[in-house]
Amino acid sequence: MGALVLVAGLSLTGCSPSQTGPENAPVQPSAAHSDEIDLARLSQLADDFPPGLKPEPLPGPSKVGAQYEDQVGDTVSYGKPLSVEPPECRALLKPVTARPGAEKMGIGAGGPQPPALVVGADAPVEVPTPLPSKGCDRMTFVAEGALPDGSVERLPAPDIEDAIAYGLKVIYDAGVEYFYIAILDGSTYVVVRARMTPDFQPEPLLPDLLKKAVTAIRG
């Protein structure tokens, strides 16, 4: 598997939604937050990375290139065909799509081998398929030409206002990756992605970093 590069992977699994509302309902943008989003403020997280990982922010924000648009929000398949069991859980592994003119921003350290840690954001995005809130505690996936086949476990995620948030532990032959995802107001995708050793404990580091990333870009 390739390195945790600061490109489309930044635009880079059940679900524990932080926003109240009808089960499996798409999140609608909230003008109160969406007008204040500034992806460039992710650079403020440089001091929040763990010791031994020196983060480097991307210059930006910058446009999501056309060749990477289908990879925005993609956790395991990198734009390749993907099948998931149970099938209704598939949306959790690719929860958003980029809207025309979407921008990306990220900050990260390490890679291609553990430890590696990246925080990224993309906006604007949309949530094309309602995200299941139940029944997806464990999944398996097959991604053609991308990661080796693997399994996914759902992890607790922090409560974030006007957002859906959930955590994923992706397990495959070559290692373990963690994703902590927040979709803000239905229009901004934020992800903390970590490739760590099998004995790594994601809490509280990764959920806290997700909350700090959301706070930073909301200002």
Largest sheet: 10 strands, antiparallel
Query: Roughly how much helix do the residues carry, as a percent range?
Result: under 10%
Mean pLDDT metric: 83
Task: Find the count of extended strands (DSSP E, 2+ residues).
Answer: 10
Q: Bin the strand percentage.
A: 25-35%
Q: What is the overall shape?
A: globular
- The fold-level CATH name is Protein Transport Mog1p, Chain A
What's the structural domain tally?
1
The parts where pLDDT drops under 50 for at least 5 residues are 1-33
* CATH 2nd-level architecture: 3-Layer(aba) Sandwich
Structural class: mainly beta
- In angstroms, what is the radius of gyration? 15 Å
CATH first level: Alpha Beta
Intertermini distance: 35 Å
What is the chain-wise order of helices and strands?
Answer: HEEEEEEEEEEH
- Helical run tally: 2
Descriptive report:
The chain is mostly beta strands and 219 residues long. It has one domain (31-218): Protein Transport Mog1p, Chain A. 8% of the residues lie in helices and 34% in strands. It contains two helices and ten strands. Strands 1, 2, 3, 4, 5, 6, 7, 8, 9 and 10 form a ten-stranded antiparallel β-sheet that branches. A hairpin with a 7-residue loop joins strand 7 and strand 8 (163-172).
Break the fold down into its secondary structure elements and pairings.
Blueprint: H1 31-34, E1 56-57, E2 62-63, E3 82-85, E4 97-110, E5 116-126, E6 138-143, E7 150-155, E8 163-172, E9 175-184, E10 188-196, H2 205-218
Please provide a brief summary of the model:
This protein is mainly β. 8% of the residues lie in helices and 34% in strands.
